[in-house]
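User: Last request for today: this protein with glutathione, please.
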Amino acid sequence: MSNTQVILHHYPQSPVAEKVRMTLGLKGLDWHSVIIPRLPPKPNLMPLTGGYRLTPVMQIGADVYCDSACILDELEQRFPKPKLCADTGEGLENWTEGELFLDVVTVALVEMSATIPAEFMADRGPLYFGPDFSLSTLKSNYDGCLEKVRGQLSHLNDGLAAQAYLFGTTPGLADARAYYLVWFLRDRMAEAEAFFHQFENLERWESNLKKIGHGNPQELSDLEALDIAKNAKHETPENISADDCEGLKVGDKITIAPANGGPKVAGTLHNLSPNRIALLRQDERVGQVCVHFPRAGYVINTL
Ligand SMILES: N[C@@H](CCC(=O)N[C@@H](CS)C(=O)NCC(=O)O)C(=O)O
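Assistant: Here's the final one, the structure of the complex with glutathione:
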Protein backbone atom coordinates (compact mmCIF):
# COMPACT_ATOMS: atom_id res chain seq x y z
CA MET A 1 0.00 0.00 0.00
CA SER A 2 1.37 3.43 -0.88
CA ASN A 3 2.15 5.95 1.83
CA THR A 4 -0.42 8.29 0.38
CA GLN A 5 -3.33 5.89 0.90
CA VAL A 6 -6.12 7.43 2.94
CA ILE A 7 -6.93 5.45 6.08
CA LEU A 8 -10.05 6.45 8.00
CA HIS A 9 -10.36 5.37 11.63
CA HIS A 10 -14.08 5.42 12.38
CA TYR A 11 -17.16 3.35 13.21
CA PRO A 12 -20.29 2.99 11.09
CA GLN A 13 -22.69 4.77 13.49
CA SER A 14 -20.61 7.97 13.75
CA PRO A 15 -22.34 10.95 12.09
CA VAL A 16 -19.18 13.06 11.98
CA ALA A 17 -17.44 10.15 10.25
CA GLU A 18 -20.37 10.06 7.81
CA LYS A 19 -19.51 13.64 6.82
CA VAL A 20 -16.00 12.45 5.93
CA ARG A 21 -17.22 9.25 4.24
CA MET A 22 -19.55 11.39 2.12
CA THR A 23 -16.63 13.64 1.17
CA LEU A 24 -14.57 10.59 0.16
CA GLY A 25 -17.55 9.58 -1.98
CA LEU A 26 -17.86 13.04 -3.56
CA LYS A 27 -14.21 12.76 -4.55
CA GLY A 28 -14.58 9.14 -5.70
CA LEU A 29 -11.57 8.05 -3.66
CA ASP A 30 -10.20 4.62 -2.82
CA TRP A 31 -9.55 4.45 0.91
CA HIS A 32 -8.92 2.07 3.79
CA SER A 33 -11.40 1.66 6.59
CA VAL A 34 -10.26 0.87 10.13
CA ILE A 35 -13.15 0.27 12.52
CA ILE A 36 -12.42 1.64 16.00
CA PRO A 37 -14.37 1.12 19.25
CA ARG A 38 -17.36 3.37 19.92
CA LEU A 39 -16.22 3.87 23.51
CA PRO A 40 -12.78 4.32 25.07
CA PRO A 41 -10.36 2.74 25.54
CA LYS A 42 -9.10 2.87 21.96
CA PRO A 43 -5.71 1.26 22.47
CA ASN A 44 -4.82 0.98 18.79
CA LEU A 45 -5.79 4.55 17.98
CA MET A 46 -3.89 6.23 20.82
CA PRO A 47 -0.41 5.45 19.42
CA LEU A 48 -1.40 7.55 16.39
CA THR A 49 -3.16 10.47 18.09
CA GLY A 50 -1.33 10.63 21.42
CA GLY A 51 -4.57 10.84 23.41
CA TYR A 52 -7.13 12.49 21.10
CA ARG A 53 -10.14 10.17 21.31
CA LEU A 54 -12.83 11.63 19.05
CA THR A 55 -14.06 10.03 15.85
CA PRO A 56 -13.08 10.20 12.99
CA VAL A 57 -9.31 10.32 12.59
CA MET A 58 -7.58 10.15 9.21
CA GLN A 59 -4.12 8.70 8.68
CA ILE A 60 -1.94 9.01 5.61
CA GLY A 61 1.34 7.19 6.27
CA ALA A 62 2.79 8.78 9.42
CA ASP A 63 0.60 11.90 9.18
CA VAL A 64 -2.48 11.79 11.41
CA TYR A 65 -5.39 14.23 11.00
CA CYS A 66 -7.70 14.84 13.97
CA ASP A 67 -11.14 16.45 13.64
CA SER A 68 -13.34 16.46 10.53
CA ALA A 69 -12.49 20.12 9.80
CA CYS A 70 -8.81 19.23 9.45
CA ILE A 71 -9.63 16.04 7.54
CA LEU A 72 -11.83 17.81 4.97
CA ASP A 73 -9.22 20.52 4.52
CA GLU A 74 -6.48 17.94 3.91
CA LEU A 75 -8.60 15.91 1.51
CA GLU A 76 -9.31 19.05 -0.51
CA GLN A 77 -5.60 19.90 -0.67
CA ARG A 78 -4.42 16.40 -1.58
CA PHE A 79 -7.25 15.47 -3.91
CA PRO A 80 -8.37 18.74 -5.51
CA LYS A 81 -10.38 17.01 -8.25
CA PRO A 82 -13.28 17.24 -8.28
CA LYS A 83 -12.82 20.57 -6.59
CA LEU A 84 -15.30 20.90 -3.77
CA CYS A 85 -13.94 24.06 -2.23
CA ALA A 86 -15.77 26.60 -4.36
CA ASP A 87 -18.66 25.72 -2.14
CA THR A 88 -17.06 24.75 1.15
CA GLY A 89 -19.82 26.51 3.01
CA GLU A 90 -17.42 27.56 5.77
CA GLY A 91 -20.15 29.59 7.45
CA LEU A 92 -22.35 26.58 7.08
CA GLU A 93 -19.82 24.51 8.99
CA ASN A 94 -20.01 26.88 11.95
CA TRP A 95 -23.76 26.54 11.79
CA THR A 96 -24.00 22.75 11.45
CA GLU A 97 -21.36 22.08 14.09
CA GLY A 98 -22.35 24.60 16.71
CA GLU A 99 -25.70 24.91 18.41
CA LEU A 100 -27.49 22.94 15.70
CA PHE A 101 -25.19 19.95 16.25
CA LEU A 102 -25.92 19.98 19.99
CA ASP A 103 -29.66 20.24 19.32
CA VAL A 104 -29.39 17.22 17.03
CA VAL A 105 -27.32 15.34 19.63
CA THR A 106 -29.99 16.12 22.27
CA VAL A 107 -32.72 14.67 20.06
CA ALA A 108 -30.60 11.64 19.13
CA LEU A 109 -29.48 10.84 22.70
CA VAL A 110 -33.01 11.09 24.07
CA GLU A 111 -34.29 8.90 21.24
CA MET A 112 -31.55 6.34 21.94
CA SER A 113 -31.81 6.52 25.73
CA ALA A 114 -34.22 3.60 26.14
CA THR A 115 -32.02 1.18 24.22
CA ILE A 116 -28.37 2.17 24.57
CA PRO A 117 -26.14 0.75 27.30
CA ALA A 118 -25.73 2.92 30.41
CA GLU A 119 -21.99 3.26 29.80
CA PHE A 120 -22.63 4.83 26.39
CA MET A 121 -24.84 7.54 27.93
CA ALA A 122 -22.35 7.99 30.79
CA ASP A 123 -19.64 8.71 28.19
CA ARG A 124 -21.52 10.81 25.63
CA GLY A 125 -23.65 12.88 28.04
CA PRO A 126 -20.71 14.62 29.76
CA LEU A 127 -18.68 14.64 26.51
CA TYR A 128 -21.24 16.89 24.83
CA PHE A 129 -23.05 18.58 27.73
CA GLY A 130 -20.38 18.88 30.41
CA PRO A 131 -19.84 17.30 33.84
CA ASP A 132 -23.27 18.38 35.13
CA PHE A 133 -25.07 16.44 32.42
CA SER A 134 -28.30 14.70 33.42
CA LEU A 135 -30.60 12.66 31.21
CA SER A 136 -33.68 14.20 32.82
CA THR A 137 -32.50 17.72 31.82
CA LEU A 138 -31.82 16.46 28.32
CA LYS A 139 -35.31 14.96 28.15
CA SER A 140 -36.88 18.21 29.26
CA ASN A 141 -34.98 20.02 26.47
CA TYR A 142 -36.07 17.53 23.79
CA ASP A 143 -39.17 19.33 22.44
CA GLY A 144 -37.44 22.70 22.23
CA CYS A 145 -34.42 21.21 20.46
CA LEU A 146 -36.58 19.30 18.01
CA GLU A 147 -38.43 22.50 17.12
CA LYS A 148 -35.13 24.33 16.57
CA VAL A 149 -33.92 21.49 14.37
CA ARG A 150 -37.20 21.58 12.44
CA GLY A 151 -36.74 25.32 11.88
CA GLN A 152 -33.20 24.90 10.56
CA LEU A 153 -34.10 21.97 8.32
CA SER A 154 -36.94 24.00 6.85
CA HIS A 155 -34.37 26.66 5.81
CA LEU A 156 -32.41 23.93 4.06
CA ASN A 157 -35.59 22.61 2.49
CA ASP A 158 -36.48 26.09 1.17
CA GLY A 159 -32.99 26.56 -0.27
CA LEU A 160 -33.23 23.23 -2.06
CA ALA A 161 -36.49 24.12 -3.83
CA ALA A 162 -34.76 25.80 -6.77
CA GLN A 163 -31.53 23.78 -6.97
CA ALA A 164 -30.44 20.20 -6.50
CA TYR A 165 -27.58 20.92 -4.06
CA LEU A 166 -26.90 23.63 -1.52
CA PHE A 167 -24.67 25.70 -3.79
CA GLY A 168 -26.06 24.80 -7.20
CA THR A 169 -26.23 21.88 -9.59
CA THR A 170 -23.26 19.87 -8.29
CA PRO A 171 -22.68 18.54 -4.80
CA GLY A 172 -19.85 19.93 -2.67
CA LEU A 173 -18.43 20.07 0.82
CA ALA A 174 -21.32 22.22 1.99
CA ASP A 175 -23.67 19.33 1.24
CA ALA A 176 -21.53 16.88 3.24
CA ARG A 177 -21.45 19.40 6.10
CA ALA A 178 -25.24 19.50 6.27
CA TYR A 179 -26.06 15.95 5.18
CA TYR A 180 -24.42 14.25 8.17
CA LEU A 181 -26.96 15.77 10.57
CA VAL A 182 -29.87 14.53 8.46
CA TRP A 183 -28.21 11.09 8.26
CA PHE A 184 -27.79 11.10 12.06
CA LEU A 185 -31.42 11.99 12.79
CA ARG A 186 -32.75 9.62 10.15
CA ASP A 187 -30.82 6.80 11.82
CA ARG A 188 -31.69 7.59 15.43
CA MET A 189 -35.27 8.95 15.45
CA ALA A 190 -38.08 6.44 15.91
CA GLU A 191 -40.46 8.69 13.93
CA ALA A 192 -37.88 9.71 11.33
CA GLU A 193 -40.04 8.87 8.35
CA ALA A 194 -42.92 11.10 9.44
CA PHE A 195 -40.55 13.85 10.59
CA PHE A 196 -38.63 14.07 7.32
CA HIS A 197 -41.73 13.74 5.18
CA GLN A 198 -42.47 17.41 5.80
CA PHE A 199 -39.27 18.35 3.91
CA GLU A 200 -39.85 17.25 0.33
CA ASN A 201 -36.84 18.99 -1.28
CA LEU A 202 -34.55 17.96 1.52
CA GLU A 203 -35.57 14.32 1.12
CA ARG A 204 -34.82 14.46 -2.62
CA TRP A 205 -31.39 16.00 -1.88
CA GLU A 206 -30.73 13.40 0.82
CA SER A 207 -31.54 10.54 -1.52
CA ASN A 208 -29.32 11.97 -4.31
CA LEU A 209 -26.40 12.31 -1.88
CA LYS A 210 -26.95 8.81 -0.54
CA LYS A 211 -26.65 7.45 -4.09
CA ILE A 212 -23.19 9.03 -4.45
CA GLY A 213 -21.98 6.74 -1.69
CA HIS A 214 -18.63 6.61 0.06
CA GLY A 215 -16.08 6.01 -2.70
CA ASN A 216 -14.24 2.69 -2.51
CA PRO A 217 -13.45 1.60 1.05
CA GLN A 218 -11.40 -1.50 1.76
CA GLU A 219 -11.12 -2.99 5.22
CA LEU A 220 -7.84 -2.69 7.07
CA SER A 221 -7.04 -3.86 10.59
CA ASP A 222 -5.99 -1.39 13.28
CA LEU A 223 -2.69 -3.24 13.69
CA GLU A 224 -1.94 -2.99 9.96
CA ALA A 225 -2.62 0.75 10.17
CA LEU A 226 -0.13 1.05 13.04
CA ASP A 227 2.49 -0.83 11.00
CA ILE A 228 1.92 1.54 8.08
CA ALA A 229 2.59 4.53 10.35
CA LYS A 230 5.67 2.82 11.78
CA ASN A 231 7.14 2.14 8.34
CA ALA A 232 6.37 5.58 6.93
CA LYS A 233 7.90 9.00 7.38
CA HIS A 234 5.60 11.96 7.81
CA GLU A 235 5.42 14.32 4.83
CA THR A 236 4.71 17.62 6.55
CA PRO A 237 7.30 20.39 6.10
CA GLU A 238 8.57 22.39 9.06
CA ASN A 239 6.98 25.83 8.87
CA ILE A 240 5.49 28.63 10.93
CA SER A 241 3.91 31.71 9.37
CA ALA A 242 6.37 34.54 10.06
CA ASP A 243 3.62 36.84 11.26
CA ASP A 244 2.00 34.37 13.65
CA CYS A 245 0.90 36.48 16.57
CA GLU A 246 1.10 33.75 19.21
CA GLY A 247 4.90 33.94 19.02
CA LEU A 248 5.33 30.18 18.75
CA LYS A 249 8.46 28.61 17.23
CA VAL A 250 9.24 25.30 15.55
CA GLY A 251 10.42 22.87 18.23
CA ASP A 252 8.43 24.49 21.07
CA LYS A 253 7.08 21.88 23.44
CA ILE A 254 3.32 22.23 23.42
CA THR A 255 0.04 20.55 24.21
CA ILE A 256 -3.13 20.81 22.21
CA ALA A 257 -6.66 19.84 23.24
CA PRO A 258 -10.25 20.53 22.17
CA ALA A 259 -11.39 23.83 23.72
CA ASN A 260 -14.43 22.11 25.23
CA GLY A 261 -12.31 19.56 27.07
CA GLY A 262 -10.60 16.26 26.54
CA PRO A 263 -7.10 14.85 26.89
CA LYS A 264 -4.15 17.03 25.91
CA VAL A 265 -1.87 15.79 23.13
CA ALA A 266 1.77 16.66 23.78
CA GLY A 267 4.56 17.09 21.26
CA THR A 268 6.88 19.56 19.57
CA LEU A 269 5.49 22.20 17.29
CA HIS A 270 6.26 21.45 13.65
CA ASN A 271 3.91 23.40 11.40
CA LEU A 272 1.56 26.26 12.18
CA SER A 273 -0.76 28.25 9.91
CA PRO A 274 -3.81 30.36 10.73
CA ASN A 275 -6.08 27.33 10.29
CA ARG A 276 -3.94 24.35 11.17
CA ILE A 277 -1.39 23.15 13.70
CA ALA A 278 0.81 20.07 13.46
CA LEU A 279 3.02 18.62 16.16
CA LEU A 280 5.55 15.81 16.16
CA ARG A 281 5.36 13.10 18.73
CA GLN A 282 7.36 10.01 19.39
CA ASP A 283 5.51 6.82 20.18
CA GLU A 284 6.80 3.42 21.28
CA ARG A 285 4.57 1.52 18.85
CA VAL A 286 4.68 3.69 15.73
CA GLY A 287 7.80 5.84 16.10
CA GLN A 288 7.55 9.47 15.02
CA VAL A 289 4.18 10.71 13.80
CA CYS A 290 2.98 14.16 12.79
CA VAL A 291 -0.43 14.92 14.30
CA HIS A 292 -2.57 17.66 12.75
CA PHE A 293 -5.43 19.65 14.31
CA PRO A 294 -7.56 22.58 13.25
CA ARG A 295 -6.68 25.75 15.13
CA ALA A 296 -10.28 26.84 15.63
CA GLY A 297 -11.89 25.03 18.53
CA TYR A 298 -8.55 23.90 20.02
CA VAL A 299 -6.33 25.30 22.74
CA ILE A 300 -2.54 25.35 22.48
CA ASN A 301 -0.42 25.54 25.64
CA THR A 302 3.37 25.79 25.82
CA LEU A 303 5.14 23.52 28.30
N1 LIG B 1 -15.07 18.34 16.26
C1 LIG B 1 -14.97 16.92 16.04
C2 LIG B 1 -16.18 16.25 16.69
C3 LIG B 1 -16.13 14.76 16.55
C4 LIG B 1 -17.16 14.03 17.37
O1 LIG B 1 -17.80 14.59 18.29
N2 LIG B 1 -17.31 12.75 17.08
C5 LIG B 1 -18.12 11.86 17.88
C6 LIG B 1 -18.63 10.70 17.04
S1 LIG B 1 -19.73 11.25 15.80
C7 LIG B 1 -17.24 11.25 18.94
O2 LIG B 1 -16.05 11.40 18.88
N3 LIG B 1 -17.80 10.56 19.91
C8 LIG B 1 -16.99 9.95 20.92
C9 LIG B 1 -16.15 8.81 20.43
O3 LIG B 1 -16.24 8.36 19.28
O4 LIG B 1 -15.37 8.30 21.25
C10 LIG B 1 -14.91 16.63 14.54
O5 LIG B 1 -15.46 17.42 13.75
O6 LIG B 1 -14.30 15.64 14.13
